[in-house]
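If your schedule permits, I should be very grateful for your opinion on a structural question. I have a record of one protein: its chain in single-letter code and its fold written as discrete structure tokens. Kindly check, if you would, that the fold set down in the tokens agrees with what the sequence suggests. I remain grateful for any guidance, and I place the record below:

***
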Amino acid sequence: MDRMLPSGLFGNGVVAAPMAGGPSNPPLAEAAGRAGGVGFLAAGYKSAERLAGELEALFATGLGFGVNLFVPRDEGLDRGAVLAYRERLRPVARRLGVELPEPRWEDDDAYPAKLDILLERVPPIVSFTFALPPARDVARLRAAGAFTIQTVTTADEARAAEDLGVDAVVVQHPSAGGHSGAFLADPLLAAFSGTLPELVAEVRGAVGLPLLAAGGIGTPTDADAARHAGASAVQLGTAFLRTPEAGTNAVHRRALTDAAFDRTAQTRAFSGKVARGLENGFMRDFADGPAGYPVIHYLTAPLRAAAVAAGDPHGTNLWAGTGWKSARDEPARDVVAHFAG
């Protein structure tokens, strides 16, 4: 028998997606929660200490919310390819007046420390992306009272998540902005060719877990189609990027309304992991960037920061899903209201 999302946690069925790197912050999570949706903290890219502080800020609101963890994964890093990429980036670094860091070969995004924090101060929801966490971690979080969710991109990944013991899955379509949560296949080589509702229906037929649909949901009609296909809720990221509560930087905000950016594309150039954003000069110049997350992420971080400081949209990542043109400059509560089920 198919399970359902607990209504007390997921309210009107709208989730403000965890968007690491700035956009997802306590004000956005709080605003989404106060509007009847669910807000998320993105734990990726930040220290365990910073996560702990943000966690306390959201607990103080008395609202339900979630925390998303990047799960470290050994993807067979090609160190030679990373070092060659570093050399190719040197002219960009010289132009921007920054130093390229040495590669951080062993980096787990402080996953163990962040997990410990969440086990001590348990949020209502914990989600995972990039890989399956150890079964013991899921069991400990569930025993502590957390509702657990895994990001999946295929029916096979959903089956693996169900076998692991999570409570629900986010079904992420390739049209989603930001990083792909794929972990069983290369999303550039094996991307689902159908629509989001078709992917939801395929996963619905494979598992009995509650489904949250994500990817390219730009209008309420898109959300309704995903729900009709079997999703219990929709998870939106790009729709919240232009809200005043989001921590989206000014360069990113301007690019989302700039007619010069007329398409999105997937790339590994910025982080070494496949992600979708507004296609810009950096993506075109380094279209063959190597796999290597998070090593590439930290390698390009100074370049991206310098580009943002200089107001250059062609030197930094501009994550966005295919429905970016439908996003508006409006409060998060209005976004939630538009997409509520």
